[in-house]
Amino acid sequence: MFESKEVEAYKSFAYVYDLFMDHVPYKEWCEYLAELLREHGVRDGLVLELGCGTGSMTELLAGKGYDMIGIDNSGDMLEIAMDKRVSSGYDILYLMQDMREFELYGTVKAIISVCDSMNYILEEEELLQVFRLVNNYLDPAGYFIFDMNTIYKYEQIGDSTIAENREEASFIWDNYYDRETCINEYELAIFIPEGNQGLYRKYEEIHEQRGYPLKKIQSLLEQAGMKFVAAYDAFSHDEVKEDSERIYVIAQESGKL
Predict the structure, then answer these.
(1) pLDDT tens across 150-208, in order?
(2) Do 49 and 61 reside in the same domain of the chain?
(3) Does residue 24 share a domain with residue 52?
(4) What are the CB-based long-range contacts (under 8 Å, 24+) for 194-198?
(5) Where are the beta strands (DSSP E) in 87-137?
(6) Residue 173 structural domain
(7) Which residues make Cβ contacts (< 8 Å) with residue 123, sequence separation at least 6?
(8) Is the same domain home to 142 and 167?
(9) Phi/psi at 99 (nearest 5 deg)?
(10) Residue 79 maps to which CATH number?
(11) pTM for the full model?
(12) 243 DSSP 8-state letter
């Protein structure tokens, strides 16, 4: 027996997000990200994470000695992140803001964004605005490192259904991809047990992400005033390939507009 309730993206999913993301090797991802930061001279100091979610990567980078700030537009996600902060004792500042209009009191050495948060920006003008804000809040010659899912990956997923059943919760993911707009939409149904009588509460969400060609990403970064430094096939230093599913992009502040 199910009770259906529509909610904003991530409002209910926040509470099972870490459960369904337990396949993500955050520690290995953090090692790679920290290596990229060190290669570009960022060994300590203030680092901002855009789209920090429940703070998994934020916590790990704080453990590497960085003074972390996390920004996310989901209060539910940040609530969990702050619970983690209490457990770890790290002095992390969390801010509930939209990355398209975020504000800081000063500049930071580096800004990062992982787990395809940038793919949630569906319009080129809005992605350009994010890049402009990043450039504005970076120290002179500071670095911006972010990942994105590729168009190739979305094409491979295509129209498909993914389901997973666990004791704590279950989900059904119906995926749709539009090759003309490069927008990937997935309808997510989450079933969370309530009580001991075999009842479940059903939550429904719709998420949209967009794939961008690397040349477009590079162009938008340069329009925002940043210098494009490099792009890698994820978790390597290899060039981006035609079949790369996730890429990492590195850009540098090169003057305020």
Answers:
(1) 999 999 999 999 898 887 778 898 999 999 999 999 998 888 887 777 788 888 888 89
(2) yes
(3) yes
(4) 198/1
(5) 93-96, 108-113
(6) 2-9+153-210
(7) none
(8) no
(9) -65, -20
(10) 3.40.50.150
(11) 0.92
(12) T
